[in-house]
Write a structure and sequence with these properties.
The complex is a heterodimer of chains A (about 375) and B (about 575). With about 375 residues, chain A is of the alpha+beta class. Chain A has 14 helices and six strands. Chain A starts with a helix and ends in a 6-residue tail after the last helix. Chain B is an alpha/beta fold and about 575 residues long. Chain B is about 35% helix and about 25% strand. Classes of the chains: A alpha+beta (about 375), B alpha/beta (about 575).
């Protein structure tokens, strides 16, 4: 009805706006989704070049820094004469031992400042796995000095740098896993929806079977069946494969539903009568109509994958150290001792929450904006 | 007009003054109702008429404060005069408050266009009507049931005592609308607002519903606000008419004045375009008579089409001559659309043959043609669709849509394709500068022109047009038909023109086939079928069509077709 009230659209820009432009305009009005988009983009940027954002080598152990608490960053440096400059620094910490229990106690030495610099040089890493560099977003002027923004774990490794490094695996598991499910989902759902009839019946029963499987026990069983001596990369791919084995069914349903409803659309019949081949009907006429819906479904499926990987690794059945993922990091926080002495070991959980919430906002916004023609 | 209306003295029951309803949208506000004033008298019928987007529905909905969000009444008064002398300004009431709920259903009842979606499918008819009775009149269960059966009887539902326990999906469209009316009448409202109550119905069903509303109005002395875009219906039932255009009242007056002495230009145009469809098109009259001795371009013999056990097309035989327009007329469910689609073998007919004479004189049976041959024939037999929105891919530009048949058949590419698209757009009266635009930037009429351009892109010989003008406003219909006829003469096309609208058929068709329940019951020249039908069904169909002339009200004279 509202379209009837609006009458013909005069706006020139709107007249030549393609589907994706209309989707983008609708999406932009959704502020939470925009925030989700920015955060997600930033997280994936980190995952692309973790070395640049890390401050310490995530695998480097440091016996003298076990359970080192987080150090606070200071940005304004006040000199003794009262003048000030903007220069980031941290206070040096001093290790003492409790005379009775011999427990380590770190105290800040406020008289000593360790200056940091942006785009400074630190440990050596490989950028994009291609070339070696020492460039970091934030590094101590003295390159051997560790910085514990989020504290250190049992072996004195920098939690902040490990979270940054873990983003690479945790976020890409979601992406790769969903791409695998998507391929299966579009193929099976598309064939099922386009041809219908007996093919549809068989595909639907298969989907129902997969959906009926209790996922967590299946994952656990499959993950437990992986040999422990496999290299980390192979292990990683097997885990994503296991996760996507059950994920495709939902996507296949979405795709099938779309195909079924589009098959009867008059413009699809028109294309058939125009003489377009089946491939052209599917890829030129039908697929663009639900591409945006599929992207929204994917965006909503990624967080589920991330959570699944985190759970599996947390339970010790997913990725194994020395691989670093958020789930692996959270294993450190499995016991009561961590809660008591080193609560900062939970910070990787915060990263999971941030990523999942941001992706969900993004997905919700996309879903609302996905069909700009049916308002 | 009626006894009760006279005893009801015709005093004002509803007084709408300077009503303004706005819909805030991204780019500002849409003034859906812009300073509308009118009065409704007891026992009288006011027709609000206008084309799509005129704000007629929003006006009616504003009265009951059921405007869809984000619309709201900005200013104005809607004064309801009750019989006991009290008055209420409905515009001032809280849309969710108790006061307006008291008015809804009790003082003013409303019926809607879609009888299916306005009734609940999970409750029986009786439950839905009894709810109204128990809420407003505080009846107990037994009382409500008795009254409900009585109401169903009043709206002429057969066997009301049994029908009360049925679900809405067990009824046909017309019967559902009767249930809706029974529900509206439950509390003896003083005003009935009917929002396009017959638009979704066939003409014969429409006639019954109009009859029913009129009879109930006489019995109960109700005032009726009847919203419609159909000038024939207006002429048939209105006492007063309010003509709206883009939210504004163009003209308000007695029905005879509106039809026979319209003052406003828009009203004149509207009446003019309706009257135009009452006669044969000028283009047709000017054309030299068709050569009827030539071989037909398409001959359909004993065509049948089953959907499961349902026989949609039953033993249909037809022929189409070169350059001829064959009209297929029938009501919903008559199988006319299925038949049209069988001609292009969208559906595989279950029996019969369709012999198509190709340009080189060879004959092809389309029912049995293989894929390659069928593809070639589909270049020569094209289709124009009913829905100007659904038949154009919203994700392709106009030039891509029109160019698609040329491209997929490898007829032209690149610059040549571009030039052909420009040429086609000019032929159908579209500005070629708009070819990079998407369908959402076009109005309904323009979109239908795009559909026509796509159909003629391959230089076809036969075009099947399925309700090509039904989704368009009446003022656009004759333009579209004129365009199609001009193209026909220029390109020597044959049309198979499927429509439920006898006016459209009379305007442009040479011959007409009347379909009823899958069969062709009558075939003849358009003049003969429209003016002197032979088959009783055709006679019944024609007599049910309201004429756009209040001085020639004919519906009470109509006769019904019983098998």
């Amino acid at each position: 009805m509202s379209e009837a009230v609006l009458g013909p659209i005069e706006n020139k820009q709107l007249a030549v706006a393609s589907q994706w432009q209309l989707v983008w305009w609708a999406f932009k009005r959704h502020h939470l989704a925009m925030a989700g988009l920015y955060i997600t983009a930033f997280l994936y940027l980190i995952a692309l070049a973790p070395g640049f954002f890390a401050t310490n080598d995530p695998s480097a152990q440091n016996g003298r820094a076990a359970y080192h608490p987080p150090q606070s960053l200071h940005f304004i440096d006040t000199a003794a004469d009262g003048s000030w400059t903007i220069k980031p620094y941290i206070h040096a910490s001093v290790l003492k031992r409790d005379p009775q229990t011999l427990a380590a106690i770190f105290t800040e030495d406020t008289s000593k400042k360790i200056y940091l610099q942006f785009l400074g040089s630190g440990y050596e890493y490989e950028l994009f796995g291609l070339f070696k560099t020492r460039l970091h977003l934030l590094a101590a002027e003295n390159t051997t000095q560790p910085i514990f923004i989020f504290g250190a774990d049992r072996l004195g490794r920098c939690v902040y740098s490990r979270i940054i490094q873990g983003a690479q695996i945790s976020l890409s598991v979601g992406l790769v896993g969903v791409l695998l499910s998507l391929t299966l989902g579009i193929l099976i759902g598309g064939v099922s929806g386009y041809y219908g009839g007996r093919i549809d019946f068989v595909a639907q029963r298969a989907i129902e079977f997969v959906l009926a499987l209790p996922t967590i026990p299946i994952w656990l069983a499959l993950a437990a069946a992986l040999p422990h001596d496999w290299p980390a990369v192979l292990n990683y791919f097997m885990i994503t494969l296991i996760l996507s084995l059950t994920g495709w069914a939902q996507l296949a349903r979405v795709v099938r539903g779309r195909f079924l409803s589009l098959r009867t659309e008059e413009f699809v019949m028109a294309a058939r009568l125009d003489g377009a081949s089946e491939g052209r009907i599917i890829f030129r006429h039908m697929l663009p109509s639900f591409a945006s819906h599929i992207i929204a479904s994917i965006t909503l499926a990624i967080p589920a994958m991330i959570l699944a990987e985190t759970s599996l690794s947390f339970l010790g059945l997913g990725l194994q150290p020395p691989s670093i993922s958020w789930g692996v990091l959270l294993r450190e926080a499995q016991n009561i001792r961590s809660i008591a002495t080193a609560p900062w070991l939970f910070i990787p959980g915060g990263a999971v929450v941030l990523a999942v919430v941001a992706l969900n906002f993004l997905g919700d916004g996309l879903r609302d904006a996905a069909d700009p023609y049916n308002k | 007009m009626s006894k009760t209306a006279q005893t009801d003295d015709g005093s004002v029951i509803l007084d709408v003054r300077n009503l303004v309803t706005h819909f805030p949208v991204r780019s500002g506000v849409v003034k859906a109702v812009d300073d509308v004033s009118f009065t409704l008298h007891r026992g009288k019928t006011l027709c609000i008429v206008g084309e799509s987007g005129s704000g007629k529905s929003v006006t009616a909905r504003s009265i009951l404060q059921i405007v869809d969000a984000p619309g709201r009444i900005v200013s104005g008064e809607i004064i309801l005069h009750r019989e006991d002398g009290t008055t209420t300004d409905l515009a001032g009431l809280n849309p969710r408050g108790k006061a307006i709920r008291q008015v809804r259903g009790r003082d003013i009842a409303m019926i809607f266009q879609e009888p299916m979606s306005s009734l609940s499918p999970v409750h029986t008819v009786g439950e839905q009507i009894m709810e109204v009775l128990r809420l407003h009149l505080k009846m107990d269960k037994a009382q409500a049931r008795t009254r409900c059966i009585e109401l169903l009887g009043q709206v002429e539902i057969p066997k009301p005592a049994e029908a009360i326990d049925r679900y809405t999906f067990e009824f046909s469209g017309g019967m559902r609308q009767r249930v809706m009316i029974a529900m509206a009448l439950a509390c003896n409202p003083h005003i009935l607002i009917a929002d396009e109550p017959t638009t979704a119905l066939d003409v014969t069903t429409q006639a019954e519903i109009i009859d029913l509303i009129r009879r109930l109005q006489n019995d109960h002395g109700m005032a009726v606000i009847f919203i419609t875009h159909d000038m024939g219906v207006v002429a048939e039932i209105a006492d007063d008419v309010l003509v709206m255009f883009r939210g504004k009242v163009m003209e308000h007056g007695p029905v005879d004045q509106i039809f026979h002495a319209p003052k406003d230009d828009y009203t004149r145009m509207l009446i003019g375009s309706v009257l135009k469809l009452e006669e044969k098109a000028e283009i047709r009259l000017k054309r030299p008579p068709l050569d009827t001795t030539v071989e037909p371009v398409m001959t359909v013999k004993n065509l049948s089409m089953h959907f499961g056990s349902n026989l949609a097309v039953n033993d249909v035989s037809l022929h189409v001559l070169p350059g001829e327009t064959l009209g297929i007329v029938g009501e919903s469910g008559s199988g006319k659309t299925t038949m049209g689609r069988c001609l292009l073998r969208v559906y595989q007919p279950t029996a019969g043959e369709i012999s198509y004479r190709r340009a080189d004189g060879s004959m092809v049976d389309l029912v049995r043609a293989d894929e390659g041959l069928l593809k070639d024939c589909r270049k020569e037999i094209r289709m124009i669709f009913q829905d100007p929105v659904g038949s154009l891919n919203p994700r392709m530009t106009v030039s891509q849509i029109i160019g698609e048949p040329l491209l997929v058949n490898h007829l032209c590419m690149g610059q040549e394709l571009e030039e052909r698209v420009v040429d086609l757009m000019e032929q159908v009266g579209l500005n070629p500068d708009w070819r990079e635009r998407y369908p959402h930037a076009f109005s309904g009429g323009q979109r239908q022109r795009i559909g026509i351009a796509r159909a003629i892109a391959l230089n076809p010989r036969v075009v099947v047009a399925d309700e090509a003008t039904s989704a368009l406003d009446v003022s656009l219909r004759s333009q579209m038909l004129d365009l199609m006829m001009n193209l026909q003469d220029k390109l020597n096309l044959s049309y198979v023109f499927i429509s439920h609208d006898i006016g459209v058929i009379r305007y442009m068709c040479d011959r007409v086939a009347v379909m009823y329940k899958g069969k062709v019951v009558e075939t003849g020249t358009a003049d003969q079928v429209c003016n002197a039908p032979e088959h009783p069904y055709t006679q019944a169909l024609l007599s049910a069509i309201p004429r756009p002339d209040p001085r020639a009200r004919s519906m009470h004279k109509r006769h019904r077709y019983k098998v």
